[in-house]
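Holo prediction — alpha-L-arabinofuranose.
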Amino acid sequence: HIDTLDKSRRNATSPYLYGIMHEDINHSGDGGIYGEMIANRAFQGSNAIIGTLDGYVGTYVTDSENEVVPFDPVMTAWAPIGQGVRMTLDILHPLSDALETSLQIDFPLNATGEVGFQNFGWWGFDVHPQQYNASLFYLNNYPRNTQGNASDITVSLRSNVTGETWASSTFKNVTPTYIDFKQLETTLHPNATAPDANNTFAVTFDGAQVAGQTLYFNLISVFPETFKGYKNGLRPDIAQGFYDLNPQFLRFPGGNNLEGYSPAQRWKWWETLGPLQDRPGRVGDWNYYNTQGLGLLEYLEWTEAMDIEPVLAVYAGFSLDVYGQNGASYPPEQMPEILQEALDELEYCMGDNSTKWGAKRIADGHPEPFQINFVEIGNEDWFSVTYPYRFQIMYDGLKAAYPHITYISTAFNENAANYNISIPAGNMWDWHGYQEPSWFLANFDLWDNWQQETNNTNVTVLLGEYSVIQIDTPSGIVNYSYPLDVHVQYPRLLSAIAEGVYALGAERNPHTVKMSSYAPSLQNRNFTNWTPDMISYDALHDNTVLSASYWQQWLFAHYRGTETLPVDATEGKLNPLFWAASIDEENNAVYLKVINTLNSTVPLNVNIPSAYTSVNGTSITASDLNSYNYVGNKTEVVPRPAELGSAAKNGSAWSWNVPKHSITVLQFDLC
Ligand code: AHR
């Protein structure tokens, strides 16, 4: 019985319940949603991508002593074109203080025909008929007393298999630059779609024109058309996948990747701003170099493009240790510096022209301030015993400057190491859970009385990272070192069902759970730090796979009532059937979300006292609980119209057999 009549039994739902978590992991930023198509565009260092130039392999890079190798500048993803052409890394001709290493190309004295160099992209290039924006910085530093010739420079997208050129553009008679780098910009317009990703971006010359010369290059960049057309924007297919989820917030930039392997390598937001040649990049937390092309402004523009709330995570004085999680903490006396960083960051986001950092944002091309309503202080600080003082200093300082913001603590007594932390009333706790399926089923009711039981009636919760990561272990406990504890490669129907049950538990407790997001959200299938992930992809946009877990999130985020409705179960109990009901007052509809965890149909009788005109349903199910979506079958586990053939209506009672292993949203359209 769904009580649509007694309004005193309803609760307002959270407008932000479903959102996105993003950090650069699995090449989810560089080589992922960040639109840049050139890998290692500024030779900044990326030893985490190793292997051959045309088919490199992503691994966790350690040497024989199991130490992480340094992230020195590398030529990964680049190769020469033409007989005798020599490529080296050069530090004598930096493009800028930030981009210190250039590519030196030496052409042999007897060069003829086509010579140059090429990039293999993020494991290839997607080529479609559209406009690609190409740019490169070039320095022709002739020897003393020679004038040098002007030369033509051709850039092209071409097949690495057949050599076919998909599109090209030639800069004619490019004159020597002598001292300073010069930027060349052009567009490429392929007429055809390349059949595969095995394409390269080539920069070529007529050997006769450049024989014996030495040239330098840096910041070589190609962008496809981006999501909603933003400059330096997002890869459109991946961004569209996020957008279609109907998310309400974006939490960024981490995750571990906020914290750095050391304080020096943390996410320094001010180094992610402005022209790309001024962004030094950094050693990311996930074993590859981050260009920081996807910087603070780009993240904010992402939220603008999708009209969603930024949940800005600020560095809180703790960095992870690459060898473990002991980490480095700022001492109390140095915390004011860290607080000031965060205050400045918020000024960049929200300040006007009269403020230092607001003026910088305006100079960076975004006159309109962004509105920041949620700030997370750190990430997973339950690993650190220093969080109580760090949190307090950050919270007090930020709250005094920005009282309207809701602050999110990353630790809480329940899971923190050896300390008590009290989250001030009106603020939030970011809970994370990577578990096996049975854990999520067993903890469906985790939030039912959490506020009362923990005496935190004014603290609410962000389920900031959660997903089914593995098979159920025989012991039924999660143990990261257990031999059978293998992260599953892709989310399966089973994962979506278990996550869906947990999400129902969140929906039933809107007074407590205000926000939630699956994590990690993205994976380039050529480079794995962590599986499973919600969306996986490679260079080809057609190969982007929206997982079973994605579709569970999609389904629940699309059918969000404005108020919860009480369900009085006259027979049966929650488990093996799980449910939650809400009313959408804008669309005048009741939504009943129901998950059947059993391997057999379960009869359902729904009684709604209000009159309704029609019932529709959308279900996610598949023949096998282990079904998952992959490139060869992207639609194995997707929402489809529910098969309501067996449904019957008798007065106000509506009955249906809920299919085995299914996630369904039923929509009752009220009169
Ligand atoms: O999502 C992967 C990692 O899991 C995140 O970086 C971190 O917050 C958590 O431990």
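READOUT: The CA atoms of residues 74 and 464 lie 35 Å apart.
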